[in-house]
Amino acid sequence: MLQTQDLTIRFGGHVAVNAVTCSFAPGTLTAIVGPNGAGKTTYFNLISGQLKASGGRVSLGGQDLTGLSASARTRAGLGRAFQLTNLFPGLSVLENVRLAVQSTLAGPHRRGLNLWSIWSDHARLTERAHAILELVAMAQQQDAVVSSLPHGDQRKLEVALLMALEPQVYMFDEPTAGMSHDEAPVILDLIRQLKTDKTKTILLVEHKMDVVRELADRIVVLHNGSLVADGDPATVIASPVVQEAYLGVAKEAA
Q1: What CA–CA distance (Å, rounded) separates 187 from 35?
Q2: Domain spanning 85-166, CATH architecture
Q3: 98 to 86, 120, 141: CA distances (angstroms)
Q4: Please, what sign has the CA dihedral across residues 164, 165, 171, 173?
Q5: How many C-beta atoms lie closer than 10 Å to residue 143's C-beta?
Q6: Chain centre distance of CA 38
Q7: Each residue's pLDDT tens digit, 138-193
Q8: Does the pLDDT of residue 106 top 60, yes or no?
Q9: What is the longest distance spanned by two Cα atoms in the chain?
Q10: In the CATH scheme, what is the homologous superfamily, with its name and number, of domain 1-77+167-183+197-254?
Q11: Angle at which helices 93-102 and 151-165 pack, to 10 degrees?
């Protein structure tokens, strides 16, 4: 279980995230919503380690992650996808995924310079990378240079990299941002696929309430950096505090 306890960050006199306490259990997809400036992405950055908290704690499976770097939190089981793609643009699709797989396995350098182990590890990494590309329907593009891919395919590839890391927690920050109407369903289908694994926890920051209604098991609402609502989608969307926080946005999307 992922937990935040009184998680807080201040920028000068401004409290961007204000003592947010929340738990996220395996087998659930929680949507984190709120108006612009509510603190959603900042809260994500505090959980994943891109920002250092002014106060409070983050823990996963009983392990305190608060003092760990972003990369150490990734190794501990947090997988984060950003609003903008976070890829190696000069490498091929396959090479991107293979590097992600390699980061989760013991490499040949840990066994000494043995030609058989180098070849064996390379074959194993490539096989796993191929399997992941099949899952995200990108096997035919494995040799394409990432910078040549359309935006939608780059977002798919980023999900593939997250899958390669085999995290306990998937964190998606507006996964369909910048995607066309035709591209977005592909990413949403991948998230639905991830939801079938009930050992995983999924967090989703999303503005599109139709997406939230369809995917979320639970909605957490932030407003002015504070947690103001938490519960099942129908109840939370209909609550007066959410209607007020969205200043009519939730009603219009209903």
Answers
A1: 23
A2: 3-Layer(aba) Sandwich (3.40)
A3: 15, 14, 14
A4: negative
A5: 9
A6: 18
A7: 999 999 999 999 888 888 898 889 888 889 999 998 888 777 777 788 888 889 99
A8: no
A9: 65
A10: P-loop containing nucleotide triphosphate hydrolases (3.40.50.300)
A11: 20
